[in-house]
Each structure stands twice: as structure tokens, then as C-alpha cells.
Specification:
By secondary structure, this protein is mainly beta. It folds into four domains: about 120 residues, no CATH class; about 160 residues, no CATH class; about 130 residues, Tick-borne Encephalitis virus Glycoprotein, domain 1, CATH 2.60.98; about 130 residues, no CATH class. Helices cover about 15% and strands about 35% of the residues. It has three helices and 44 strands. Helix 1 packs antiparallel against helix 3. The protein is elongated, with a radius of gyration of 46 Å.
């Protein structure tokens, strides 16, 4: 009789534990990352009144006769099933879809705790922390390599506010374009110039200064090759005749003294009645608003008796003798241009313009190219230099239009603004024999892509987290790159973890050692940003379990009262 009483008591105790477990589940129905628990019952050791016997001859075997002594809650199992993913408006919220735990530390990385709650934020020091203030563990970007090394030991994730990224000087230009193989250069008979005697001379240049120098006696000096300008036209069809008539009359000489360039400018302006300005290149620019013809020269300068002042202009057809005329032909050039902005070590932007020109009017496969940057920048290479411009580069193509060679493979750039000098920029026009860069097909010349690897400095604008747990920073210069990566731990037995409050777990002897790595690798789940994992408690199931537990508790209580009634009956037999 006493056994039934004790069995009822054990039933009450076990169901009380089950009630506590299920009540805790219901209490945490809205706890982020919570995993519900389940109470497990087992029976107690039974009292054996008769042992089992084997069959003997005509007598069959008999089973043992045992009387149970009640029940006990022998374990509580935490069920690590996936909770539903709920989207949020916070970009530092992270949910795990699949197996694994976030790693956090409360003592600077000496010991670790584990959690499924990804409600993270940055504190005043830039530490990436959870709601307990525990710092999330992972890997930081190596400034030397510019990469996040996930094979290194994990540590605190810290991204300070006001983070900036320095400028990165351009080191390579990638160009993809087609240079029309069908383009031809117009072939024409040479144009001649006439001298004072009527004899003709070949014109050897398309761009040349046209000017005369005179001494005090009115004698003209030969021109020295100097500055000019070049033009290129896609379609030329108009023939033009240009006649240059010398101005008659005697020249006048004027003496004067000057000690500065501005002094000379004022002397010229006053004596000639013209507007005189000095250009950035140190040249005099004369504007004759009166319309009268001028013959000018300057000599006998105290600092340099050989100095002369030239008045001239550039023309496409070269120098012209007095009284002569020349016929020019418009140019039908096979050309193409592309431009790209590059950056120096200070982050300043400079535009490099590439000009491509077919070398001959035949079906040739060789093009020449030049490059130019705005002044005061300088370009240098093994090509012909002219301060901010170089020319003489070549590009060859094979019979299929594939690139077969180009020179030179790089150039040096100096911005002359305080940034690093001789900035080497590699030119990637494509692989030899391939079609991944510049090609030469019989189609319109066009640039399909041009890029470079430099960028200016920038300020951190925001952070987002991808599926691998990488914290990607977006900067004001348009750059985005990984700043850190969240680590993830995996255990051989998740149920062996010990809860430590605050939605965190501790490693135990039965959980196994954590295997730390990146998300979406080695069986670990992936991370979803701007989302949280909800509790996996099924409220309808928990409420149903409450009813079952309640009825079980009541039934065990009934066992006790019934046993008590039987005892009363037994005691009443004495009367």
C-alpha cells in the first residue's frame, strides 16, 4: 500500500518538473534565438516479487512479476531546431539559418560563450557587441594585405566611428575596345609650297608654326621648330586654298628697357597699341584690335642679346613664303580616342586620354597610340615625350583581329601636385593572341570598357553584412570592402551545451570542442543580415502540453488520495 503512495508522490514531483520546463518555454516564446526544452520521464527501479522461469518439460515458462516504484524526470533536453527568420530594419541584426553559434566574449577573448541571438550593435568604442555587452568574435581586416584572414585566431571585432580609407594611387589601366580594321587613311598627292623664286618645295608637316622673325634692318630669319597644334577629323572631303600675302612697307625699330616679363609686356602694349598678355607657358599673346597689320621683332635685350620675339601662327600645311599659296587637303583619319580618370597618391583625379591612329592607308594591322594628361602633369616612358604627352606607342593585330603585341606596357605619371612622383601605371590592353582587350575587327571603332584600380580617400558611410558574415563598409569614395568577418562555432553535440543566461551557452564535457570557422562552410549555416531568429517554441503545442501535465499531476494526486482511502478502510477493519 505504501508503494502506491510513493509512486503517486514521484509522479507529482516529475510532473512538477515538467510543468516548470513547459512554463519556461512559454515564458520565452518571444525570446530571440531561444531553444525550447522538453522534460523526459523514466520509471524507477521495480520491485521483483517473482523471477522469470524457463519452460521445463510439459510446464511452460513464467514471466517475472515486478511492481513499479514510480517515475522520475531523468533529463531535460534542449531542442535545437531552426526558429523562424524575422526581418528587421536594423542592418546589424544577424540570424543564422542552419547549424552553428555566434562566438562572444566577456573578457576580451580569453574565454568564449556561444549564442544564437544575433541582436548586435556597435558601442561607443566601436566594439561589435550583443545585448549583454559581450564582444562578438571574428577576424579583422589586415591593413597590409587589405584582406580578412579567416585562418587566423579569432579576436574582438572593433570598427571605430569615423573610419576613413586612404587614397590608392592607380597602378593599372584595363582597356577593352575595337579599332576598325576597315578604316583607311586617305591617299593623296603631296602638296607643295612656292618660294620667292617660284620653285616648289615639299611640305613635310601637317602641323607647324607659321611666323617670321625680323631684325632692325628688316631682314627675315628662318623659323625654328616650335610649338603648334594638331587636329584630326573623322570625315574630310573639302579642298581649300589658303593664300598668305606679305605686308608691304618698312618695319620700325624701337628701343626700350625692361627688367621683368611684365615690363616687356607693358612696353609692347604701349608702343604698338595692342593688347598683350602672358600665357601660362610664358608666351606672349598679342591681340590686335585695330585691324592694322604688324611686323614685330625684339632685339638687344640686356640680359640676352640673342633673344628674339616672334609673332606667328600655326597652320595645317606648314610655312608659307611671301606671295605664295598652298592647297590643303582635308584629313580622313582612321582614329579613335578613349579617356579614363586615374588617381595619384593624394587621391587627386587626373584624366588620361589615349589616341589611336592607324599607321597606313593600306590594310595594315599596326596602329600607333599616344597618351596625354592635363598640365601640370607629366607622362614618361620610352616613347617620345613632350611634358604632359607621349606618342609613338604601337599596337599590332594578327589576321584574325586578335592582339599580337603592343608597346610600351606601362608609363610613368607625375602629377606635380605634391603627390608621389613617377607613378608607374601598367597598361593592360589584353592578352596576346586573345580577344579580351583591344581587337581589330571590321566594325566601328568603339570602347566597350575602360577601368583602373585607383580611388580617392573616403569616409565610412555605412556597414552591411553578407551571408558569410563579412561586415562590408561603404565609403564616400564609392568603394566597398570587407572590414571584418563574424566567426561561427559548431559542436558535435549541441544538446550538451549548458545555458548560462542572457541567451548564451557554455561548452561542457558532453558538447565537444567548438570547431570555429566561417559561415556556410563545413556544415555551418549561413547568416542573414537585417533579420533575427525567433524562438522555436510552438505555443499551441506548449499549451497542449500544459493540459497533459496538469491532468497527469491530478491523476497522481488521485493515486495518493485513493491509497489513503484504502488505508482508512484497512484501519477501519480493527473496529
Amino acid at each position: 500500500m505504501l508503494k502506491s503512495l510513493y509512486s503517486g508522490v514521484s509522479g507529482l514531483q516529475s510532473h512538477q518538473i515538467a510543468m516548470d520546463v513547459e512554463s519556461n518555454n512559454i515564458a520565452n516564446v518571444n525570446t530571440v534565438g531561444y531553444k525550447y526544452s522538453r522534460a523526459n520521464f523514466s520509471d524507477l527501479l521495480a520491485q521483483t516479487n517473482q523471477i522469470a522461469t524457463a519452460p521445463q518439460g510439459a510446464l511452460g515458462g513464467k514471466n517475472a512479476m515486478q511492481v513499479g516504484l514510480g517515475t522520475t524526470a531523468n533529463s531535460v533536453t534542449r531542442i535545437h531546431s531552426q526558429g523562424s527568420i524575422q526581418n528587421t530594419d536594423k542592418n546589424t541584426d544577424v540570424a543564422i539559418q542552419g547549424d552553428g553559434f555566434f562566438v562572444v566574449s566577456s573578457d576580451g577573448g580569453n574565454t568564449y560563450k556561444y549564442t544564437r541571438s544575433g541582436d548586435f550593435k556597435f558601442d561607443a568604442s566601436g566594439n561589435f557587441v550583443d545585448n549583454n555587452g559581450f564582444i562578438v568574435q571574428g577576424w579583422m581586416r589586415d591593413e597590409a594585405t587589405g584582406k580578412v584572414d579567416s585562418t587566423a585566431p579569432i579576436g574582438n571585432i572593433q570598427i571605430p566611428a569615423g573610419l576613413t580609407t586612404p587614397a590608392n594611387a592607380s597602378t593599372q589601366i584595363d582597356l577593352k575596345a575595337n579599332l576598325n580594321s576597315g578604316s583607311t587613311v586617305t591617299q593623296f598627292a603631296p602638296t607643295f609650297a612656292l618660294d620667292n623664286t617660284g620653285a616648289t618645295t615639299d611640305i613635310a608637316a601637317y602641323s607647324e608654326d607659321m611666323a617670321y622673325l625680323f631684325n632692325a634692318s628688316g631682314e627675315a630669319f628662318n623659323l625654328v621648330a616650335g610649338q603648334g597644334f594638331e587636329i584630326s577629323l573623322d570625315d574630310g572631303a573639302t579642298w581649300q586654298t589658303f593664300t598668305y600675302d606679305p605686308v608691304g612697307g618698312d618695319g620700325a625699330a624701337a628701343d626700350g628697357n625692361f627688367q621683368t616679363v611684365n615690363g616687356l609686356r607693358e612696353e609692347l602694349s604701349s608702343f604698338l597699341g595692342v593688347d598683350v598678355t602672358v600665357t601660362d607657358e610664358g608666351k606672349f599673346h598679342i591681340t590686335n584690335t585695330s585691324g592694322a597689320a604688324l611686323n614685330l621683332s625684339v632685339q638687344d635685350i640686356a640680359t640676352n642679346p640673342n633673344s628674339k620675339f616672334s609673332l606667328g601662327f600655326s597652320t595645317l600645311i606648314g610655312s608659307i613664303q611671301p606671295g605664295a599659296s598652298k592647297t590643303s587637303q582635308a584629313v580622313n583619319a582612321a582614329t579613335h580616342s578613349s579617356s579614363i580618370d586615374v588617381f595619384d597618391s593624394l587621391g587627386s583625379k587626373h584624366t588620361i586620354k589615349f589616341d589611336f591612329r592607324k599607321e597606313s592607308g593600306a590594310a595594315g594591322t599596326t596602329w600607333t597610340w599616344s597618351a596625354e594628361v592635363p598640365k601640370p602633369g607629366d607622362l614618361n616612358s620610352n616613347l617620345t615625350p613632350n611634358e604632359n604627352r607621349i606618342w609613338g606607342g604601337t599596337i599590332q593585330f594578327d589576321e584574325n583581329g586578335a592582339l599580337s603585341g603592343f608597346t610600351p606596357p606601362n608609363l610613368d605619371f607625375t602629377a606635380n601636385n605634391g603627390s608621389s612622383t613617377n607613378q608607374n601605371i601598367n597598361l593592360n590592353f589584353g592578352s596576346i593572341g586573345g580577344f579580351d582587350g583591344i581587337t581589330s575587327f571590321d566594325s566601328k571603332s568603339a570602347t566597350s570598357g575602360i577601368s583602373q584600380d585607383g580611388y580617392p580617400g573616403g569616409d565610412l558611410l555605412g556597414i552591411r553584412i553578407d551571408q558569410s558574415g563579412t561586415l562590408i563598409g561603404s565609403f564616400s569614395n564609392g568603394r566597398s570592402f570587407g572590414l571584418a568577418q563574424i566567426s561561427m562555432a559548431k559542436f558535435s553535440n549541441n544538446e550538451g551545451l549548458v545555458g548560462d543566461g542572457g541567451n548564451v551557452y557554455l561548452q561542457s564535457a558532453n558538447s565537444g570542442d567548438p570547431i570555429v570557422g566561417t559561415a556556410a562552410t563545413a556544415g555551418r549555416g549561413f547568416m542573414q543580415s537585417s533579420a533575427l531568429e525567433a524562438s522555436n517554441v510552438d505555443l499551441s503545442k506548449s499549451l497542449t502540453n500544459l493540459i497533459i501535465i496538469q491532468r497527469g499531476y491530478q491523476a497522481n494526486g488521485k493515486t495518493i488520495t485513493t491509497s489513503d482511502t484504502l488505508l482508512e478502510t484497512l484501519i477501519g477493519l480493527k473496529r
